[in-house]
Recover the amino acids of this structure.
């Protein structure tokens, strides 16, 4: 069953909604993700909507297929936009969604360090 969640950065300047079919989460061991220590959920691009704060977003990308979006005020990485041959997607930082309890997640490993 699909549920809609509200997400935001720490200061609230960047806000979004995301439709999740499940709470299948993961963490990635690439050099960037390892340093931010985020638990993530991937969704199709059309299930993510930025609702406020576009002008407050900074973008960092170390690869041509991924752009990490963060709040310029509080620095929280909220989501990553992926552009791949298999389709576009958004990877959401679950820490930005208050309704998701960390204890309820069992993240798997995405071996980004060896797949990129």
């Amino acid at each position: 069953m699909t549920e809609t969640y509200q997400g935001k950065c720490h200061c609230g300047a960047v806000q979004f909604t995301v439709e999740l079919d499940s709470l299948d989460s993961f963490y990635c061991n690439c050099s960037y993700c390892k340093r931010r220590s985020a638990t993530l959920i991937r969704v199709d691009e059309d299930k993510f909507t930025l609702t406020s704060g576009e002008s407050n977003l900074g973008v960092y990308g170390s690869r041509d297929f991924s752009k990490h979006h963060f709040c310029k005020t509080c620095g929280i990485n909220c989501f990553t936009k992926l552009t791949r041959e298999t389709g576009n997607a958004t990877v959401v930082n679950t820490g930005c969604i208050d309704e998701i309890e960390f204890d309820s997640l069992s993240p798997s490993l995405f071996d980004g360090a060896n797949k990129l």
Notes: The first helix runs from residue 31 to 36. The chain has one domain: 3-103. The chain is about 10% helix and 50% strand. The chain has a mean pLDDT of 92.
